[in-house]
Amino acid sequence: MKQKSLFNRIVIPYLVLIMLSLVITSVIASYAFRTFYINQLVDDLEAQANLILLLLPDTLSENSASFFQLDGNPQSVRVSVVLPGGKVIFDSEENPVKMDNHADRPEIIEALLGKRGHSTRYSHTLRHSMLYVAIPAVKNNKMAGVVRVSMTITAIDNNLKKLNIRVAFIGAIVLILAFLTSLVIAQKISSPLKLMQKGAEKFAEGKLGARVPESDTKELTALARALNKMAAELDDRMKTIERHRVENETILAAMVEGIIAIDPGEHIIMLNRSAGKLLNIDEKAAIGKTMQEALRNAQLLQFARQVLDSKETSIEDEITIYQEEEIILLANGAHLDWETETKPGAVIVLNDVTRVRQLEQTRRDFVINASHELKTPITAIKGFVETLLDGTAHKPEDIERILGIVARQADYLSAIASDLLSLARLESDDKTAWLAFEDKNVCDILEEVVGIYHPVAEKAGQKISLDCSGDIHATLNSILMEQAIMNLVENVIKHCPEGTQISIKGRIDSETVYISVQDNGQGISSENIPRIFERFYRIDKSRSRSLGGTGLGLAIVKHIALVHNGQINVESSRAKGSTFTISFPRKTDDS
Ligand code: ADP
Fold first, then answer.
1. Domain that residue 217 falls in
2. Distance from Cα 376 to the centre of ligand 1, integer Å
3. Which of 151, 160, 215, 430 has an alpha carbon within 20 to 30 A of 65's alpha carbon?
4. What is the pLDDT of residue 427?
C-alpha cells in the first residue's frame, strides 16, 4: 500500500476542498450575478421597446423606413424593427439593406409567437456580446412586425471578469491562510506523533526505561500514556524474565554436572560451564552448532541420537572420553518437550564418575593383591604345619627349622595386617577421632629415629647421619611422622647394599618443612619410580618378601604426608642413589 505523510493526508485534501468550494461558490455567484443583471436589463430593454412600439405607425413596411429617423442614440441601445417575414426594415446601427433576414433569430421567433423573446449572443456585425430583447409589434390586433432592442453586455462581462479576479485574489489569500492553518494543525498532530515514534523505536531497541512525552491533544496524550504503560509493563516482564534467566544460568553454571540441551535437529541450545570443561570445548561457541560440529566424541553423539529417537523418556549410559587422560562420564538423557515440534529435543546430564570408577578399580585390585599377599604366607604355614602333623619331620633340628619358618611367616602376616590397618586408618574419612596434631620440633623426631636405627644400620654395614639444626617447630602427629621416616630408613637398610650412607636431613623454608632420607645405594629405575607408592608394589618381589617387606611401606609414607597436607617426592638414579623427601606446611589446617 502506498504510504502518505500526515501532511499529504491533511493539508492537500483540505486545500483541494477549499479550492473546490471557492471555485463552485464563485461560479455560482457570477452566474447568479450575471443572470440577475441580464434579467434587469431585459426588463429595461423591454420597457424601451414598448416605448418605441408606441411611436411606430400602425402599418409597417419597407417604406416605413423614413419614419425611423431617430436622432442620436442617447441610451446606447440598438433598435431594430423587423417585419414578420424576418426582413429588417430599420436598424439604428446598420444599414438594413445590408442586413440578412432575421427570421431565424431566437428572440425574433419568440416575439413573432406573441411573447417577449430575449437572447444573448455574439454579434458578428458589432463584434460584441449582445443582449437582444424583442417584443411583438401588434397594431390593430395584427402582427405588424417585431421591435428588437439590444445592448452590448461586454460591460457586464468585464465587470464579471473584474469580480472573478477579485474573488480569485481573495480565494488565493484564503488558500494561503488555509494552507498555513492546516500546516499548523498537521504539525500539531505530527510532531507529538514523531516523538511517539522515536519513543516506540527506543522501546523496540530495548530501552524500556524511556518515556513518550504527553502532548496537549487529548487523544494523543491517551496514546502516549498507553505506550508508556505498555513500556513499563514490558520492562517489568523483561526484568522478571532476565532475573529468571540469570538465576537459571547461575544455577546451571554452578552445577558440577555437565548439562547439554539439544533441539530435535541436534543443535545445541544450551551447554553449561561444567559440560564445556568436561568435553574440553568453549561452551559459548558451541551454542547453535550441531552436536557433530561441536563435539568430537562419537559415543556421546550416538547417545544423543539414541535419546532423541528413543520411545523411552530417559536413558542412561557410560561414555568414555579421552583428553589428557581418560574420563568416564555417566550420561543421563531425557526428552525435552517442545510445544511447537512433534519430535522432542533432549537434555543430557553428564556426571564425571572417573574417580568413582578408579576407586572401584583400586578397591578390586586391592582385594586381589591383599588376598594374594596373604595367601602366600598362609599356604607356607599350612604346608609346614601339615609336614609336622603327618610326622615326616622327626629330628628336633628339622622341627625347630620348620617352626622358625612358621613363626617368620606368622610375623609377616602380622606385619601385613598391621600395615593394612595403618593404611585403612590413614585413608578413613574421619581421622580427627584418632589423629592428634601437636607442636613438635622435627629435629627431636629425627634424632629419635637415628637413635633407633643406628645399631641396625651398623649391623647391616651402613652408616647413618643426621643434619638437622636449630628450631624446626611444626604442627604434626609425631607418631605418624616417626613411622614415615622409619619406613624410609628401613627401606634403605633392607634394599641397599653394605656400605651405603644414609643421610637424614630436616630443614624449613618459609612455611614448608622438608624431611629427606638420602642414600647412595643402587637407586630406583625411572619406570619403577611412579609405581613404588602403590600398595604391594615391590621391585624385587621375592627379595623384598624374604626381607619381611610387605610392599605397603611407601604407600603408608605417602598417606602420612597427605594427612599432613603435604607430599612425598623421590629423586633417584642408578649412579647416585635415592632421596625421598616429605614436605608439609609448618602449620596444618587440621591443627
Ligand atoms: P617394601 O615392603 O618392599 O619395602 P615399600 O613400599 O616400602 O615396600 O617399597 C616399595 C619398593 O621400593 C621396595 O620393594 C623397593 O624395591 C623399593 N625401594 C624402596 N626404597 C628404596 C631405596 N631406598 N632404594 C632402592 N629401592 C627402594
1. 206-254
2. 19
3. 151
4. 82
